[in-house]
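Hi Y.,

Following your request, here is the sequence exactly as I used it, all 427 residues.
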Amino acid sequence: MAIARVLLLAHAVSAFDFEWHATQEPPGGSTVGWTTYEGQVRGPPAVTDGAGGAFVAGHSAAGTVQLGGSSIAVTGALAIVLARVSSEVANTNKFVWAMKIGGPADDKILDLAYDGSGGVWLVGHQMSGTMAVGNTCLSSALVPAGQSCPSWSSSSYPGGGCPSGCAGPRGGQNFLARIDSSGTVVHATSVGSNSGTAWSDTMWNAHAACDSSGNLYVAGEIGTGMTFRAGSHTVSTGPDSRAVLFKYNAATLDFDWAIPCGIGFGGGPDVRGLVYGSSGLYVAGDAHHGTTAFGSHSVTSSMIEPFVARFSESGVAQWAVTASGTGADYMKDIDADATGAGVWVLTQMYYVAGTSITVGSSSFASMSPYSSIAFHVDSSGTITNAAMIHGSSDGVLPNVYSIVGVSDGYYLGGDKCWSEGTHTLGS
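Below is the corresponding structure, written out as tokens. Let me know if you'd prefer a different format.
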């Protein structure tokens, strides 16, 4: 029996009712269709388009994908599908446009970031030897000095590949692409050395954010003992680091800087999110046992503890803070608050029976082994407004996985892990 994958999008208005919904389903029950990428902690990438709608992205196997009035032919093993969705009720075709990005192999999206001017930045991982992004041909080969890719045209290479002169032995690379509100690719580039002659290990997990000028910031993980190159900048990770943070300048179309994103025991921290606000960057993740350093600042963890570290626009670490329970605790999500003065953070905390924990100035008694705690971190690193979400018994665990800052606080998203019992939000 064929399994049909369905994409459902919904728009809710302030009255907390759904104003419209749009769906995409493969015709005839085909297994070919839209599949969202679940490798990210935050789930499938989706960001605002600045006009009440959204950019959404996913993956599709070979076949035809129908999104509103856009029919997309996918010929590779796995391609990225990016679409813009309108918020206008009068627009019966909710998908304003849709496009494919990918070559003959598995090419994946890692994250999206709204560019502040109606467009979107896409951060991806390319396994195809060559791949067309708009009219730019990206090669994952090590290109000999003085050689460049031949010109590309959709009529000559309709499958999204590039001329064979670009092919080579390299095994994948990261890439960046900027797409405007009409679906036109305005810029695309590989992440690696400027010359294309030096190898760069690739990010398999990445989070993106933009400042008001459309500059792109990316925090991602490459693994320990590897070398990451971004333009003229090189980051070498040793046994105690795996994460990198870099800035791509939207005006110069080059990498301004690249740095290690935390150095500590167990291969360094795990990166779970990135937010821009208050003229700085907030990196969220999990720090392992011992001391983790972010530039001249550090945090100490007893086991695994969620952290938030702030960096300037020039890549200088400004502070780092942690929040912890009595066991292994994890970062779930982070989002900017509506004022731009800080971020809202969502964590999962572990309790030992009969104990309590303190987050900021708030103390919480043990309610169940695992509870979720949301709190605010301002631009100076001060934790306030902590609140707990917990179950009525050991088996009723809250699975809360997303937080979104709004004008008067935040919204949470999640589910209940057991049909019985109750969840309590707040006191």
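The longest strand covers residues 342-350.

Thanks again,
Q.
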